[in-house]
Design goal:
Helix content: 10-25%
Largest sheet: 6 strands, mixed
CATH topology: Aminopeptidase
CATH superfamily: Gcn5-related N-acetyltransferase (GNAT)
Number of domains: 1
Number of strands: 9
Shape: globular
Order of helices and strands: EHHEEEEHEHEEE
Strand content: 25-35%
CATH architecture: 3-Layer(aba) Sandwich
Radius of gyration: 15 Å
Length: about 170
């Protein structure tokens, strides 16, 4: 297996859709709208970073980053997700490669930080952790995590892009 991480290309759009559907098919705590979120982010030019993991010419993983707003007015913060890896390719380090590449892209675009909603046991290894004073309403604090890249930690309520409400 020789995984290449690269930026999304127009020819990847259907594969990204398929990978996302497959990755979340059996996942708990989802309403199975992740593929619609990505499409809507792309449609509204809010898909700030879109990376694919390619193995032998086939897209086997994807990660998306989009801007978030914070009630204290802090700018240049992003939300990570969804992140998807085909079920047959999970557990092979592809998600980690996508995460590391996404964090590097955030640094490249001079992001101040990134938030995500996910399993702390997985995302801690990348420097994400719950941060007091940074809140996503109606979500247990331990699952809402942030990575500060520069200029300190904002304080306030985080709102993901409107595309996260896409249903189809």
């Amino acid at each position: 297996m020789s995984i290449i991480i690269r930026k999304e290309q127009p020819s990847d759009i259907q594969s990204i859709h398929d990978v996302t559907v497959a990755a979340f098919l059996e996942a708990p705590h989802t309403d199975h709208t992740e593929q619609f979120i990505i499409n809507k982010l792309r449609e509204l030019s809010a898909l700030s970073v879109s990376l694919v993991a390619v193995d032998g010419g086939n897209v086997v993983g994807h990660i998306a980053l989009s801007p978030v707003s914070i009630s204290d007015g802090t700018d240049s913060w992003y939300g990570l997700g969804p992140i998807s890896v085909l079920p047959n390719n999970q557990g092979q380090g592809i998600g980690s490669k996508l995460m590391n590449a996404a964090i590097q892209e955030l640094k490249n675009i001079k992001a101040k930080g990134c938030v995500l909603l996910g399993d702390p046991n997985y995302y801690n290894r990348f420097g994400f952790k719950p941060r007091e004073g940074l809140v996503l309403p109606d979500v247990p604090q331990e699952y809402f995590q942030a990575l500060v890249l520069r200029e300190g930690l904002p304080q306030g309520i985080v709102a993901y892009h409107e595309s996260f409400y896409a249903k189809g």
